[in-house]
Amino acid sequence: MAELNELYQQVILDHNKKPRNFKRLERANCEQEGYNPLCGDQITLYLEMDGDLIKDVGFQGSGCAISKASASMMTTAVKGKTKEEAGLMFDEFHRMVKGDLDAETEQNHLGRLKIFAGVREFPARVKCASLSWHTLRAAIEGYGESITTEDEHRQD
Amino acid sequence: MNRKMQSALEEVDAQETLTNRFDVDRIREDFPILKQRVHGRPLVYLDNAATSQTPQVVIDAIINYYSAQNANVHRGVHYLSQLATREYEDARVRIQRFINAAETHEVIYTRGATEGINLVAQSYGRKFVHEGDEIIISTMEHHSNIVPWQMLCDGQRANLRVIPINDDGELMIEEFAQMLNKRVKMVAVTHISNALGTIVPVKRIIELAHSQDVPVLLDGAQAAPHLKVDVRNLDCDFYAFSSHKMCGPTGIGVLYGKSHWLESMPPVMGGGDMISSVTFEKTTYNTLPYKFEAGTPNIEGAIALGAAVDYLNSIGLDRIAAYEHELLEYATEVIGAIPGVRIIGTAREKASVLSFTVEDIHPHDIGTILDQEGIAVRAGHHCAQPVMKRFDVPATARASFAFYNTKEEIDALAAGIQKAIEVFS
Predict the structure, then answer these.
(1) Which domain range does residue A101 map to?
(2) Which distant-in-sequence residues (6+ apart) come within 8 Å of B375 by Cβ?
(3) Which residues on A lie below 8 Å from B385 (Cβ)?
């Protein structure tokens, strides 16, 4: 029960209900799809890049509360950041939800994103929290093809 | 009749009613896993359409096999090999009776329903399906009854056609009848939909297909544990099912095929056991069923499936079906009454599967919250993405009931859903 409250915190539920930057960016010069077919989570991420700078970011799609809130909070966190800064946050976020980084005691740049630390108690949901982040990384690295995080457990 | 005799007779009557009553508490005692607690709560296992739980007699059969019978089959002259062979083939006979097949050799052991369907698609398909021919499936098939036919159609340049379903999740028979023509070489449909619970009127489908000389394969993975299957009465040409959905172990299943089809079909796997003689110039294939059973089979699986069949028979499929129907009706009423719940799949003829969505809560979140209450349901597309598309939902939550489930467990499910609604309110 404590774990459940930790997972579905008010901030997460709020971002699920009213996702921020939930729109198609007209001026996007980078677009990337992420899709977890087993869950049915789908996200399209729009980036307006100015060189290495993420000038603006938006997303559309559907999915569970965790994936939607994670995408919403990610967009607010990476707006105005450089590719390198976003890449570092990806790495820290990923390690945190998998339980490899204690965001409370170890140094990190996650800020408000620390609220997703509770996901580590729910291994089946790591892929939900990390879908938008993997989509962002694929966008920045210019993958083009749709990506998925459903093979996440196999990477461990 | 004196008073004493009358009261004695009444007592007998009362006892008879008791034995006829479905004693679910006693049945639950047969399943050691049901005593487990999950996240501190009693396990409420409602994911039976994915896999069923295993009774002690089946577990014992596996233990006994490795403790006292283990040897390769059909090979040795020694005692153990003969014992293992006898047990393995005895199980085949019991399965034959279970589905009322005419011949024992019409029962082919496979890894499961998926392998059975693939076997027919690859063997029958490559021989009898040619360019421009058609295969008919339905909208509510599991991926395992879609993809093997797609693969076949790709290879043979044949066309896959799909029977539509209505808003209740029922197959549209009129449309199906109009799809039949001389180019159709196979109709492959499910007996019970895993995602919707619909019981398909397969007998009518078979009659229509046979009137045009088209054979029919039934995907019986969901049906075999929930209703009495009689392949001769149905007159189906192929029937595929899986042991792990009917109280048996994983990794074993059965393909039933009518003799004349199986005789005319080439093997798809070569190796030991499926041959009668081998030279480098020419190999002669073994007779049925061994022609389709290359390599050392899943011996313990077959024996344990035999034990599962005995177990199901000891309760009786008719009684199982009746009790599960009671559970389904209760669940439909209780879960359907929760505000915001939409039940997906409202066919008139339904097996004990309840697929649903809850307004503004993703099925995955429902699954996680229910899990914390010890309740196991499936959340996702149930390997039936075309069904999800048909009902315009990305996924559903699915509770599927077995004869060892209770109304109290359905009450727990309802409370769990209410809790999810509270968390999200």
Answers:
(1) 2-142
(2) B41, B44, B46, B409, B412, B413, B416
(3) 37
Close Cβ partners of B144 (under 8 Å, ≥ 6 residues apart): B113, B114, B117, B219, B221, B383
Taking contacts as CB-CB distances below 8 angstroms, the residues of chain B near A13 are 423-424
Could you tell me the pTM of the whole model?
A: 0.91
Residue A1 pLDDT: 62
SS3 B403: coil
Contact of B380 with chain A, judged by CB distance below 8 Å, is answered with yes
pLDDT profile of chain B (425 residues), mean per 10: 60 51 95 97 98 98 98 90 96 98 98 98 97 98 97 98 97 98 98 97 98 98 97 98 98 98 96 88 92 96 98 97 97 98 97 96 95 95 89 93 98 98 93
H, E, C per residue of B333-393:
HHHHCCCCEEEECCCCCECCEEEEEECCECHHHHHHHHHHCCEECEEECCCCHHHHHHCCC
The 3-state DSSP class for residue B95 equals: helix
Options 3.30.420.40, 3.40.50.1970, 3.40.640.10, 1.10.10.10; CATH of B58-314: 3.40.640.10
pLDDT at A147: 77
d(CA A57, CA A77): 10
Strands B41-42 and B37-38 turn out to be antiparallel
CATH number of B21-50+316-424: 3.40.50.300, 1.10.1740.10, 3.40.50.620, 3.90.1150.10?
A: 3.90.1150.10
Burial class (CB in 10 A: 0-12, 13-18, 19+), B87: buried
Q: What is the separation of C-alpha B244 from the centre of its chain, rounded to a whole number of angstroms? A: 8
**Phi–psi pair at B214, nearest 5 degrees:** -100, 125
Q: Tens digits of per-residue pLDDT, A94-137?
A: 999 999 999 999 999 999 999 999 999 999 899 999 999 999 99
Burial of A29 (0-12, 13-18, 19+ CB in 10 A): exposed
Domain spans, chain B? 21-50+316-424, 58-314
Tokens of residue B254, six digits: 């059965």
Closest by CA to A44, choosing from A14, A77, A22, is A22
The DSSP symbol for A80 reads T
What CATH number is attached to the domain comprising A65? 3.90.1010.10
pLDDT at B202: 98
Report the residue from A17, A40, A62 with minimal CB separation from B380: A40
Q: Answer yes or no: is A154 within a domain.
A: no
Active site residue B247: no
Task: Please give the backbone phi and psi of residue A133, each rounded to the nearest 5 degrees, phi first.
Answer: -70, -40
Distance (Å) of CA A71 to CA A39, A58, A113, B97, B124: 16, 9, 11, 55, 48
- Interchain pair A65, B395: CB under 8 A: no
Among A135, A141, A144, which residue's Cα sits nearest to residue A43? A135
| Closest Cβ–Cβ partner in B372, B380, B388 for A4 | B372
